[in-house]
Amino acid sequence: MVPIFIRTFASVMKKLWIIIAVALMVTACQESLEDRCQREAKEFTERACPRHIDTEIVLDSMTFDKESHTIGYCYTLQGSLDNPQRVDKTKFSEVLLLEVKNSTNIKLYKDAGYSFRYTYYSEKNSGTKLFEATFREKDYQ
């Protein structure tokens, strides 16, 4: 006859191994941060784009490049902003960098060292890039 303590211990150990096995299966099924970012960028673009940021700026898409760990935002400038002479690249860059530094929405990605690219295109001259800036970890830390 097996003492009650050993049977209880064996029962507890069996349950513990089942819990560990289930936990391992759950963690094995979780997506990586890169996969999550890629999925969320695609879903956001499909669900929410194009999105008017204001009267002259439209967010066209959000992308993620796994190789470079770069989240990209593509915009179209309209109206009076749709003019290469009007786009103050220095001011745009300063404002965007400040936005990246202060944004809590992208904290997870900043903590992972991701880069953020902002690209602005002309509505009048389709495909013409008016401005682009990429901010890396060293820029926003």
Describe this structure as you would to a colleague:
- By secondary structure, this protein is an alpha+beta fold.
- Helix content is 46%, strand content 26%.
- The protein has 5 helices and 5 strands, in the order ααβββααββα.
- Strand 2 and strand 3 (70-77) form a beta hairpin.
- The termini are far apart.
- Residues 2-17 and 21-28 have low confidence and may be disordered.
Instruction: Indicate the low-confidence ranges by residue numbers.
Output: 2-17, 21-28
Cα-to-Cα separation, first versus last residue: 66 Å
Number of helices: 5
> Helical percent range?
40-55%
In short:
The protein is an alpha+beta fold and 141 residues long.
Highlighted features:
single chain, 141 residues, alpha+beta, 5-stranded mixed sheet, 5 helices, 46% helix, globular, disordered N terminus
